[in-house]
């Protein structure tokens, strides 16, 4: 690549908005249409080339943010997808589904609150019924809250919601999916830079992400003999509805500016890591590892 090509590529890189992101806040679960600017999920840019042809994937939190970008990329690579999300996120889920339908791949909608074990089982069964099986489980649903109060005021409800969404649901979904997974299948968990560089304000959340890394390595050891690979993606600061729904307005303005690349990432920039890990012909010997998509922050 010559210098002019490199320069032209760099000029196309996304940047944070001039002066930072506009201060903004919304309630959980966040909504894509209320974000300013609306994130880039690869709608206009992701080009597929049959890398996941014939695979069937369940993507939790597939309505918005990173999950939407993964759904669009998977569908354009030839996979059928099932999307799990909270019932109040139907609008976002429908929009993701319409991008999948545009590729002529099958999309199955599986609303339900994953903090309930029976719901996790139902979501997996609905996905398997609708897709005719499951080859890839993407455990992407997650929740955080930036904490102002001291540890003594961290409420039991919040601790329950963070741990149940991020850890319990991941175990429950994986248990329910196991009978459907076969040799060549894979699981992709979503970790975070918070597993490596925990912020005090995200104490409970960061611990769940460290737990997800540990779980990923151990599950890879358990399922390896069955020919099932287990990996994780650890995003850095990515512009998704989770952020304005759970961080202070002032933090949003400078979101991602503290990374070596100096900006937040877009959901679209995470999708290729998931495609690689899901592709049996490309990642056939990749298991028990964590791929960082962090804008340069270290994942070790
Ligand atoms: P997002 O809000 O777009 O996606 C999170 C999704 O989780 C929601 O859309 C929702 O459908 C799902 N979810 C949450 N609670 C649920 C519940 N009880 N039942 C069912 N579904 C539930 O935000 P995102 O940033 O794309 O988050 C996706 C994953 O990425 C999360 O695991 C998050 O921790 C992780 N992550 C995000 C960032 C970031 O900066 N955005 C950084 C590191 C890791
Ligand atoms: Mg959502």
TrEMBL record:
Claim: DNA-binding is one of the keywords in the record: no
Task: Cite the Pfam families for this sequence.
Answer: adh_short_C2
Arranged from A to Z, the UniProt key words for this protein are:
Oxidoreductase
Q: Where is this region: Disordered?
A: 1-49
**Compositional bias (Basic and acidic residues) spans?**
30-49
Tell me the GO molecular function terms.
oxidoreductase activity, acting on CH-OH group of donors
Please state every residue range assigned to the domain named Ketoreductase: 55-270
Give the similarity note.
Belongs to the short-chain dehydrogenases/reductases (SDR) family.
This one is known as: Oxidoreductase
User: Which species is the source of this protein?
Assistant: Luteipulveratus halotolerans
